[in-house]
Amino acid sequence: MVSLKSHPPIDPTLPTWLADLQQSGVAALADLSMPSAKQEEWRYVDLRFDIGSFDLATSGVPSALDVPFRSARGALAITDGAMGELVSDLPNGVVFGSARNTTEPCVSGKFGSGVPADRDVFAAIHRAFAGDGAFLHISSGTAVEEPFTVEISATRSGTVSLPHLTVVVEDNVEASAIVYFASHEEVDAVVLSQLEVSIGKNSHFKLTVVQQWGDKTRAIADVFYTLDDNATGTFTEIGLGGVYSRVRFDADLIGNGSHMEIIGAYFGDRDQVLDYRYFLDHVGVGTTSNIFLKGAVEDDAESVFTGLIRIEEGAQKTNAHQTNRNLILSDGASAQSVPNLEILANDVRCGHGSTMGPLDKDQRYYLMSRGLDKAQADRLQVKGFFEEALVKVPHGNIRDELRLAVNKKFVAAQSEGRV
Amino acid sequence: MSLALSVRSLEAKIGDLLILKGVDLEVPAGEVHVLMGPNGSGKSTLCHVLTGKDDYQATGTILVDGIDISGMPVDERARAGVFQAFQYPVQIGGVLLEELLDEMAEASPDPAAFRARTTAAVESLNMEHFMNRSVNDELSGGEKKRSEMLQLAAVQPKIAVLDEIDSGLDIDAVREVAELVEELRSPDLGVLLITHYSRILRYMKPDRVHVMIDGRVVKSGGVEVAEELESSGYDALRKSLGAEPVAEEDDFLAGL
Q1: Measured between CB atoms, does B79 come within 8 Å of chain A?
Q2: Among B95, B83, B102, B98, residue whose Cα is nearest residue B189
Q3: Which long-range CB contacts under 8 A does B231-239 form with residues at least 24 apart?
Q4: In A139-258, beta strands by DSSP E
Q5: For B133, which residue in chain A has the nearest alpha carbon?
């Protein structure tokens, strides 16, 4: 049994559905303890912290932190334990704001539906103590070009915050959102977030996460997608910060002809651990998925990618691919890459490819023969390596910022003599 | 007359295998020289040893415009005036030719002049549409050679080493490349064009032709040297030099 060092009692003013969720979280916690690397889903990582020594973040000053890439349109801020007010007007057909206060009836069936409370101690804590979250509901037939944004930040050491985003997309919708995660360096906080997306028939929803936690912050993001007939989900994660940052991603491709597109780029430096666990469950007929992740590690950093594609018995004509390419920039850095398949149908196409290795010697030779010094040649190679993933980031206007952020990390490693 | 390139007693080995066994070669500034030789004779090795690839242990002197570059790493040699147009230029996905040229400009002694030469070369070679494509990625053989020639024009080296720049090209592309080489002629540039076919010589007028066999330059002369080779072959030349003819090509050596 694990709990937090401190938390307030259950708020009596919560709507019933949310109070019930919290009760189920408390019940689940009774049987759980900190995970260990002996458990398959936590293999390769040593968490080295005890969630029981952190206090629940109960308040916060919204937008106290100037996170990079701020957008002023359709933006919500979640800071520590506090939800901010919505910035800017919303298009017709869109509800975006506090989950706790919304009058939209579907919130009760969707909020917290993605991640089982008893999956691990972090899911249970989130369920037991999350008292609000961002709720985005997009009605049928709505097309919104500009992304909605949620800026999630942690500012207080010693706290656990539980940011939550629930997205409900009805039929025939085109829309997207960007979630920014950020904290200042030295903020020794734990952030257990949940991002849930449910996509209706013939809709396309793209969620992009830009993760720039400070170098003391630990973060676990549970992401869940469910897709109806001919729905397309896109999930992109750019992982740059955190001493430990995990993304646990689950998608249920339930609708026939549904498609899940996953793009990722991550760069671990110094003692960072970046931990990615992807689980895709193909249920409908003719469903497709594609995972494309590129990562680099340097110094003592570690990265983990595990991908499990499960194809259910009735999911004929499934087409699923996983690609994970890793650059190992220092001898002390390591990357794990474990694609897996579990196929119960007989008419499917699946493929996977994993690579890991140092910068390419022939490319370096070629670039240096053009007069570039080694540092310049290596920077260009790293740029080229990540470009394949960054060029796929759905929001074209943030790509340059992401290129710069990746370049900055590599240049810092060069100038501090780590690569 | 200054020498763009002067190579003396150059030996090079890879592991224990001696490939260059004492190469002597001079290319004066303003001239175009051709180096011919059968597969495995060490032509490509010579290119890489001049460029400074660290797979080889080399001894001997290499002077570029009078400066000894033999101890220098690859990038310093480039800045000292060596340019190699590669036989198989490596593809660099995600890096645009435009970006590469920009980095090359930054690394050059006069970035503004470099950029001006780049602009002029892009226009004269009609390569605007190449600039926002990845370096050597998804290009045809001929397009890769043109990309190499564009970089050469932008760099303005002292000695340009063109490694089998005619290989893998159809006859029109060979003529085009030959014409580009002739256009590059300038009083400050020496060109060493490496080939094992004489067909490119139909479209250009080299000042001298050298023949390399078994890691040495065994014959040098005018265009007539290439014509002789064309009619009688490398084995006849070997015999006339008292060497054993080689019965079969060694696949490993052929790549060197």
Answers
A1: yes
A2: B83
A3: B234/B37, B234/B38, B237/B211, B237/B213, B238/B213
A4: 148-154, 159-161, 164-169, 174-183, 190-199, 204-212, 218-227, 232-239, 244-253
A5: A384
Q: What is chain B's length?
A: 256
Between A363, A369, A381, which is nearest B51 by CB? A369
Taking only the tens place, the pLDDT of each residue in A198-247 is: 999 999 999 999 999 999 999 999 999 999 999 999 999 999 999 999 99
What are the extents of the domains in chain B? 3-88+158-254
How far is CA B141 from each of CA B91, B131, B148, rounded to the nearest angstrom? Answer: 12, 17, 11
User: Does A366 contact B89 at a Cβ distance shorter than 8 Å?
Assistant: yes
Give me the sign of the Cα torsion angle A293, A297, A301, A302. Answer: positive
- Which positions 72-131 of A are in contact with B (Cβ < 8 Å)? none
Q: What is the pTM of this model?
A: 0.94
Strands of B67-68's sheet in order across: B17-28, B3-14, B57-64, B67-68
CATH superfamily, with its number, for domain B3-88+158-254: P-loop containing nucleotide triphosphate hydrolases (3.40.50.300)
d(CA A47, CA A141): 44
Closest CB to A369: pick one of B78, B93, B108: B78
> In whole angstroms, what is the distance from residue B161 CA to residue B152 CA?
10
Contacts of residue A362 in chain B, CB cutoff 8 Å? 90
Q: Are B80 and B62 in contact (CB under 8 A)?
A: no
- A377 interaction partners in chain B (CB closer than 8 Å): 75
Please write the tens of the pLDDT for every residue from A331-385: 999 999 999 999 999 999 999 999 999 999 999 999 999 999 999 999 999 999 9
- CB count in 10 Å sphere of residue A396: 8
Task: Quote ipTM for the complex.
Answer: 0.94
Angle in degrees, CA A103, A108, A110, rounded to 5: 115
